[in-house]
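In full, the data.
>
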Amino acid sequence: MNNRKSRGTTSFLLGNEAIARAALEAGIHFASGYPGTPSSEIIRTIVPYAEKSNVHVEWSVNEKVACEGAAAAAFAGLRSLAAMKNAGLSVALDFLTHLSMTGLGANNGSMVVVVCDDPDGHSSGDETDSRWLARFSYAPLLEPSSIPEAKQLMRWAFELSAEYDCHVMLRSYTRLSHASTLIELEEIRQKGVQSHTDSSVSISPYLAIDKHADVIKRLARIRERFEDSSFNTYEGPDRPELIIICGGSGYLCVRDAVESLGIDQSVGILKLATLWPFPKQLVADHLARTDRFLIAEEVDPYIEIHVKETMVDDGRNGKQIFGKESGHIPAYGEITPDRVISALADIRGMEYTGRSAEYGKKIAAQADPLIVGRGLAWCPGCPHRATFWALEKAIKQDRRNAYLTGDIGCYTLDVFPGGKSLQNLLHAMGSGAGLASGLGQLGRFGYEQPVIAVCGDSTFFHASIPALINAVTNRSNLIQVVLDNQATAMTGFQPHPGTGTNALGQQAPKIEIEDLCRAMGCRVTVADPFDVRSSIRTIRHLLKEDTGVRVLIMRRTCELVRMREENFKPVTVSVDDEKCKGDECRICTSEFRCPGLVWDDLEGYASIREDICSGCGVCADICPFNAIAKEEVA
């Protein structure tokens, strides 16, 4: 994108790119975030404009710090953006709930928090609905229904923030963040302002009663503004048989459903883009139009509950409200046109048969046998595959049934069919260390299993450090394995404090994980996961120590990063079909499961897929019959 393109120029943008573009056109000075799908492209899109548009851009160590940095810029009179996924908003919430009480310091600064939800959990452990968290934290909430509207709402969010002296939340979601369309671009103009803070003024959430009263009054003023917002629209007859109230992705699904059924002359559609404070009077006015309403939204019944609350407050208890709580819209997952059509058909007594749960299975059964199924698995040459191989062998040799805790990262793939299924507890980022810290205290209650926590290098800096400090201070007994692949690999190879670069690709101070762990009082060992035999011996030794906090750093650069930097294979690998034991063994393809290794049914032995083999050579080390040979490239 050219930051000097004139009005009327268009570009094909992802939803996240459009959100970032809107922030640039609104004149932001500060952008921060922590990578998490489906939000990662927002900060990445702003990076190329950092120098020429004088914007500070950073990948923060976690979402709470990202929001604190963005708020600091707003306190100084600047425009700022913080971006994260739904899980990250929970991390930031402690600070944001306080920020709502104080406001932004009446210094004409503004701050927008973009949170990208993931209905259906495409790339998340859950489908947490962030709309409730906006209400919980007293933050105005906007939700777009299309990419062009996301761009418009984003620019308006900065104006609202400055006008009402508070941060504003904009909720995106996977189907908007990762969709694409043509977007009209406007000129990027940074607002000319000299940043400053008033050191004579104290901004604090304490004296909470007065602060609480002030924020409620502010929200009341914002509600009045939302009642008349042009982003909330109604289409349909004045006196419809039924009104569908929707927001976000629900709107486009509703439009499709109404058009498909040909009922646009009898059904109205009320689209809401301002979700908190909820525009009660606007909804009450539409409650007077008819007696039947369908609420179409995804994940939680957020709009539905607020519509029912409005109905009671407005004294209109005789209305029929259909939605999630009536069972007409499923209580989980994404909204689809088919779900809306099914609900409308049931409400209106129409004949309609949607696609059954068996439909997908029948399609899959008829699929061309040449189409290869691609499940979730580690990449060829991923060091995590070698680490978990070593962990499995060492744990079996130890014979005490070690218990593994983990969290979120590429290493989560261990629990999928392509992994080893070693991790027993998987929760939030950093929870592996926290759970292990608790389990490591249970020896006095007869708990005898060794405890191993697994985290990635980015996760270590994000959330594992406090838990490790807790474990050391409270004399817990555990092994913390840090999978250091020198990148935030799962979300696009963003840098972190241990990579030695910042968001702009510039050199930055590198924080060594082993130095930090030693400073905390941990015993530290560094190993190479590709040296499989040595790694197994190291893990067995750490298991035998059986006391205190031991940190094992498994260090090997992510293979995708290495290949980009070096563009060659370190070794060539080949299978000796005379040594391969065929069906008697198959350890390489059935247990190690590297995609670069395939089984040749015709010949009855393993073979190497040269097109995807990365040349790590680990398969040669795990073959018990030395049937796989590796040769270093000169």
About this structure: The longest strand covers residues 110-117.
